Amino acid sequence: xxxxxxxxxxxxxxxxxxxxxxxxxxxxxxxxxxxxxxxxxxxxxxxxxxxxxxxxxxxxxxxxxxxxxxxxxxxxxxxxxxxxxxxxxxxxxxxxxxxxxxxxxxxxxxxxxxxxxxxxxxxxxxxxxxxxxxxxxxxxxx
Length: 142
Fold this sequence. Notes:
single chain; 142 residues; 2 domains; mainly alpha
């Protein structure tokens, strides 16, 4: 693992993560993104680093990049519904409603009956219903 090459302890890497997280929390998304990139180089399979970078891009309105990184996150943590949920928002901002719907359906599926994801699942269902209703109204009005 690259962190071992640089003789970094887990505590040191977590300290770097805390710095990135704090930058994100105060709206310094560009600075946070730079740190999350470094963290991903140190350990590209750590979900929270990948989610952090994707969230920075999303907040910077770089929706295509954010969606791509959320997609990468689904590869390293395939059972996690969180990246699918946030990916759907990116697709909606990109006006790619079919992809947003697919991402929402995946979020719902991955959330399953897990209590910790119930709110995310409920929001995904409501958003999907809204998108379905909106697209039906658009077709009807043509």
